Amino acid sequence: MQKSSQKNISITGKKCVGCRSCEQVCPTGCIVFEPDEEGFLYPKVEEEQCIRCGKCLRHCPVLLRREEERQPEMYGVRNKNAEHCSRSASAGVADMAAREMIAAEGSVFGCAYTDKWKAEHREIQAEEDLWKIQSSKYVQSDIGRCYETAKARLKEGKKVLFTGTPCQIAGLYAFLGAEKENANLITIDLICHGVPSPLLWKKYLDYREQKMGGRVTECNFRYKGKKGWGTNLRIRTERKDSVRPLSLDRYGIHFLNGDCYRESCYQCRYADTNRVGDLTCGDFWGVEKVRTQFMDTKGVSVVLVNSEKGKAFFEKIKEQAIILEVKPEEILPFQGNLVHPTRRPKLRDTFYQGINENGYIEKLKTGLQLSERIKALLPQKVTIFEREIKIMKILIIHTMAIDYNGVTDCIVQYLKHMNREGMEATILSTVTVHPDFEKLFQELGCRLERIEIRKEHPLRYMFRLAKLVRREKFDLVHAHGNSATMFFDMAGAKLGGCRIRIAHGHSTSCGNQKLDRLLRPFFYHSYTQAAACGKKVGEWLYAGRKFRILPNGRELEAYRFRKDIRRKIRETYQLGETFTIGHVGRFNGPKNQKFALEVFEELLKEEPESHLVFMGDGALLEEVKARAVRLGVAENVTFTGSVKNIPEMLSAMDAMIFPSMYEGMPLVVLEWQAAGLPCIVSDTITDECDVTELVCRVSLKADRKVWVEKLKEIRQKSDERNCTLWQQKLKSAGFDIWEDAEKLREWYQELNKKLRE
Question: Which domain holds residue 53?
């Protein structure tokens, strides 16, 4: 058989999640999974046997797009059966579901240990075997051929319950194709932090057997014992019995820190509330704070009901439990992996080096961990109390409209990518809130407050803010603005008793310069900490005083160029193969869209097939549309309005134009560079955004023809979309939101610690 040019599964590289779907669909059996140097399973393709049929690619969850947007119902769950609960990680929701499925003579697939303590998925068909798949196994399980078995059971007309990590459920769906809609199939995805390698787990067990003497006979990461629900690891051998907190264990501490996860875990596509399974379950961390009366030391679970099938099945298992409907803001601050993937620590670069050498596990230190050692000696009630009082309450003030703008995006990006465990964030709207962001903040687990009189009645606003701060006892207030009018926010926070007050500047100019100049002397004495999105912003706002730069970082990988998306977007907007220039921003005076139209008018004289796409909304939208008609270019101009899929839209562009009169740190220019897009920008914009050679500066005073010539020059580069190179440069320059969010978290904690000392 003549081979086609079709690629195979080897293109996924380190993005592979190890689900083994490709192996089970391969018609020639040329794909096998073998451990890499770290012990994670990856596909190896026997190229001579590969017929390039493309089946492995069509059944890979990494390569398949997620089209469905789910809005789950959320519940707190307590198990009525104390015995069943004691053997589970939290309240035993998966166990309840498994018992319901077994009662219906169905099959249950879940993770179990082998006799050598290897974690692997297996089929359970009898209630007496359910103990094998109870409790958590903090290591990646081997799916084996379970997808094939599950499919066979469905074809037999049997009911099937499949539990696993989100990527394992996604792998099952990819393998099944249309069969995933089978009414007999129920899936449960677990809230997952990430998975260490099986090799690390084996090395650790060998170490424990050597230290404790004898073979391991019991292993439980969520041993409840006297302490009850928590994260205590029990290892029992033929001679000894050891129970310790995960935070004080050589394996456990690195699992908690995320040092040892599979590379794909740090880019998990399922770490949000748009879940892949019919049901999602995990620990209801923080329940003692938000729903004190619902707390149970035996364990409390959180369940997300994601589909109609899931809803119907959840109704069946309700009889086994006590159910409480909860809100996202009660769950998400304590379950970071329902908001974003685990951040990749720097230690991950070297963590697995030398794993095959003697003494590797001994080199994994836990540190002093004095507070953890003290808590380990305390009874459970005290531990819970300690957890509660450590919550840092943060008020984030947006001094402008919460809408599709740079400041809002900056706030959202930091909240989305920050590990907010131990933090409780409230957003204060001082103008208006777009419905999209009201919903988004809720999904991020943030409470939204409103005092929408700041501009009209600043003094009244200040006293209302003081009342709010005093009532809620915020530990830290972080205000985002563009002028010394943040005095009213800082003064209100001070009057309310907040001792940590951060002023955060986002622009090098403001609308009311007279008021700005009047308030500056008072402003400089109202905040305790100063921050800015860039150097020039800080120099303008703080006038020689100290400030910290908090970069407007991006999730760089999201902007990677994709040919399939390019074709799709171009078809949607009927762009064909035209030279397409893009602009992203609100329609207001400073964005200067009218100037962009005039440049485009000149371009059309030389390149009549060119197209201009404006992405955004705003007060001047209709005026700019009318101007396009007057200039005679309207047929070649598209106005998309506000769009949510900016990364995808950028794949369809050939170049970008940005003639703004002034900016703080324009996020969009960073995004364009991450997408590998050449862009022409005005010389009035801060040069801090010139991270790569893709940015070309032209004066606003220059003739429009100069802009046209520059556009024609950068057009020659438009096919060079080596995003990896550009993204590496952006990351080196400090514009990786994952790292930026971690630095902000550390700053918050540092400030709070100093205050408590």
Answer: 9-58
